[in-house]
Specification:
The protein is mainly α and 406 residues long. The protein has one domain. Helix content is 85%, strand content 0%. The two termini are 32 Å apart. The C terminus is likely disordered.
Length: 406
């Protein structure tokens, strides 16, 4: 995934000028919205209840509930798409209609893929997940580049390429997913999996709105107070610095989260919860260690990294790479602790931390963009990551199991 993503950055920055790359980055914030408030939170609940469903011998009932929830989520996204396009047309922003529609279609397809990958990971089909996730970033960039060369430069063309690649990946995932469906059975004592997944997921969807606002505010703040070209340069920094370190930590989380959920079970056994707590702290320390090494590497080699991976017109901002690396790593470490709280069914306890830190992050993003442009936004992101990590530490240690911190 890392190699494919970095190769994609090199390929698309050669084909797209900073303005078009900035438009693509803004379009991706629309796709992120769907995954942060609808399919992403739902996916968290879907993954969380796979192990209990297997323990109760009701995998078929669980999968049936998942299907119903995903269909309802898709209907909601379709309504959002209709209203978004209508709003843009009324506002006279016709140039954003095509990229918004294609971004929302990409969001649906990639959201389906993420949810299927979550179930497959929980079912320990790790090789299948690894193959698809490894191929997806490079395939997305190759299809987008091919369409750009065929149809001409443009952010909308690139987004359509992303959508086609997501469709190809989803088709392959569905083929392999049949193995899980074949082994599914209904339990004698059926549980209302749909209700349980919903109760787990809705708090994540609520604070997901604020999380999305924070995630998107950096690019939109630069769009308001700077230029679309600066948005493109910032997007390159984000993809080279924030994304890889988050992805590396996410790989470890992807491996361990199903184990955390399986160990926690229904999260009613204090001994099982204590084991989950200790494992999540090990993951957190690993994430912080990797972040430190990556920061030093970026500090020493940022010019060489940009010379290899980015087109020349984007290289003037390479000195900011170390700081966005550490920002991404600290936030990813906070997410490792958040997985502990999710394993123990404490999603509601996370709401205040998620919402308040997100609102602070939005404010300082706009302040940073107004006063210092790209540099200000990156500094704002680092402050947000530190605040978020500190609050997760407080929540995890709140239960009195502070010995797990060491």
């Amino acid at each position: 995934m890392v190699v494919g993503s970095l190769a994609g950055v090199r390929l698309l920055t050669e084909l797209l000028p900073p303005d078009a790359y900035g438009e693509l980055a803004l379009g991706m914030t629309v796709a992120t919205l769907v995954n942060q408030i609808i399919l992403g939170p739902l996916g968290g609940g879907i993954i969380r209840f796979y192990a209990p469903a297997v323990e109760h011998g009701d995998l078929a009932g669980y999968l049936q509930a998942v299907k119903k929830l995903v269909l309802r989520a898709t209907a909601l996204i379709f309504l959002i798409t209709v209203f978004a396009i209508a709003g843009l047309m009324v506002a006279g922003e016709m140039q954003w209609v095509a990229i918004t529609a294609s971004a929302l279609a990409f969001a649906i397809l990639s959201g389906y893929s993420a949810n299927l990958a979550g179930i497959q990971m929980a079912a320990r089909q790790r090789s299948i997940v690894a193959i698809h996730q490894g191929v997806e970033p490079l395939l997305r960039s190759l299809v987008a580049a091919g369409l750009i060369l065929l149809l001409g430069m443009g952010s909308t063309v690139a987004m359509v390429g992303y959508m086609i690649a997501a469709l190809l990946i989803l088709g392959s995932q569905i083929y392999f997913f049949q193995n899980i469906i074949r082994g599914s059975t209904f339990g004698e004592n059926k549980r209302n999996w749909q209700d349980e997944i919903w109760k787990f997921s809705w708090p994540i969807g609520i604070f997901g709105v604020f999380t999305w606002l924070q995630l998107a505010s950096d690019r939109w703040a630069l769009q308001v107070f700077s230029t679309i070209g600066d948005v493109g340069s910032y997007a390159v920094l984000y993809q080279l610095g924030y994304y890889p370190i988050s992805l590396l930590t996410g790989m470890a989380m992807q491996f361990l989260v199903p184990i955390l959920y399986q160990r926690a079970g229904d999260a009613r056994d204090s001994k099982r919860n204590a084991g989950v707590n200790g494992l999540s702290w090990k993951l957190t320390w690993l994430s912080l260690g990797v972040t430190g090494v990556a920061f030093l590497g970026a500090l020493l080699l940022h010019r060489q990294i940009f010379w290899i991976l980015v087109a020349e017109k984007y290289r003037s901002v390479s000195y900011l790479l170390p700081w966005i690396v550490i920002s991404g790593g600290v936030f990813a470490s906070g997410q490792a602790l958040a997985s502990n709280l999710q394993a123990q069914m404490k999603t509601r306890e996370m709401m205040a931390a998620k919402i308040i830190t997100a609102l602070l992050g939005i404010a300082i993003n706009f302040i940073g963009a107004y006063w210092y442009g790209i540099t200000g936004v990156i500094c704002a992101g680092l402050v947000f990551s530190i605040l978020y990590f500190a609050w997760m530490v407080i929540l995890v240690n709140k239960g009195g199991e502070k010995e797990c911190f060491c």
